[in-house]
Amino acid sequence: xxxxxxxxxxxxxxxxxxxxxxxxxxxxxxxxxxxxxxxxxxxxxxxxxxxxxxxxxxxxxxxxxxxxxxxxxxxxxxxxxxxxxxxxxxxxxxxxxxxxxxxxxxxxxxxxxxxxxxxxxxxxxxxxxxxxxxxxxxxxxxxxxxxxxxxxxxxxxxxxxxxxxxx
Length: 167
Prior knowledge:
This protein is mainly α and 167 residues long. The chain contains seven helices and no strands. The mean pLDDT is 90.
């Protein structure tokens, strides 16, 4: 065996090592993405859990929320409380929407929750808040999806078709 043969064997071993390194890095990247996706789900779950617990701890928040769900008249302060809760929920849903758009969470997970934020639009005063400025607090593509969800799930809101068609 001469020096050229040893050089050829060295190149072969080097090529195999490069391929093995690429395969190893691919596996590590996939594990990293899976870990990142798990972290996103965990953070989203914490956001909604904390929001629900904070609301549940306050009789004033619960009373305002319950009245809005039952479509009862709200005082100005109760309306502000409900809008604060809805805004917090929508921030979490917007995050889910964005993560879904970037394929960091499963589309099915996001789709399963669309009825929740759509139903919020039917609560006392929420649609009016949404159409008079609430929607501008969120990216246009998410706001459009909220409004599409209201239509998809046939949520009763004041003058829906007239308002959406004028945009």
